[in-house]
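User: My collaborator and I are trying to settle a disagreement about how two of our proteins should look. Neither of us wants to argue from intuition anymore, so we agreed to look at predicted structures for both before our next call. Could you fold the first one, then the second, and keep them clearly separated?

Assistant: That sounds like a sensible way to settle it. I'll keep them separate. The first protein:
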Amino acid sequence: MYETSEAIDLDFTNYYHEHYNEMYLVAKRVVHSHYSAEDVVQEAYIKAYNNYGHLIEKSKCRAWLRTIVIRTAIDYYRKQSRYETVSVEEGAETGRLLQCPKNDVENELYWRFEQAGLFEKIETLPENMKAVLKLKIDTDGKDQDIADELNISLSAVKTRLHRARKLLKMEFEVVN
């Protein structure tokens, strides 16, 4: 009743070639990158190959394979999303240190000037926004701590942060 290994290999190889383009497009819709989609499809096909002998209904193989590709693509996307890119303003707002490559003196100087420019721009904000934003940076981003410190409502903190971000963004757009 069980198929031989050679029959499974031949059947799966044919199936691979028949559905590769469709599975590539499915993966690309999730990961939004040509090379990443290729990686996802290869990984999904390896998973599918390892479990192909256990597939009972061969007529549902396309849907089964598509599910494996989608789940593999989602996993890949989640792993990539863990390493987010933040702007200088967002990094300072949330208290994150800015990292720059140290192998290039020019890049390091650029990042130091950007960081210094950000703090100069914060000093030009209206006093109520400046106080909220500075506390946001100092208190590791906890809005309730800021509200308690300044004796204002949580919604006032959020409003002032929003307005401060908006003003900083406009300032940086004017410069650039």
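The second protein, kept apart from the first:
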Amino acid sequence: MAKKTFEEVELPTNPNLPPWVITPKEEKLIFERWRKKTFERCDALIKAYINCSNSYTPFEAMKNCKDINKESQECVAKYQKIEYLDQERDILIEEKKEKRRNYLEYLKQLEAKQK
């Protein structure tokens, strides 16, 4: 049996910790979500640049697709700001609060069954 890597192990958040405590693994998840959403928002511009650059040789593409490339880079830069990263943190904290509420409700149900 092969050992699992750190990325493959799903570590649950301790429900006894406050939801605003973010683990390094959760911080990595936040960053990945942030990056994915940024590129989704700029997907049309990035695809336009790829289509433009594929229709030329590399040196011609640098010259002919310069404007489209600049637009796509500006789009990505617009969304890769701390405010959007903070929004992703807020989303994760809300998810953790909901999971904690569900967990506490589950514990209450178990306690009621035992009585």
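Some points you might bring to the call about the second protein. Residues 3 and 9 are 10 Å apart (CA to CA). The chain has one domain: 25-114.
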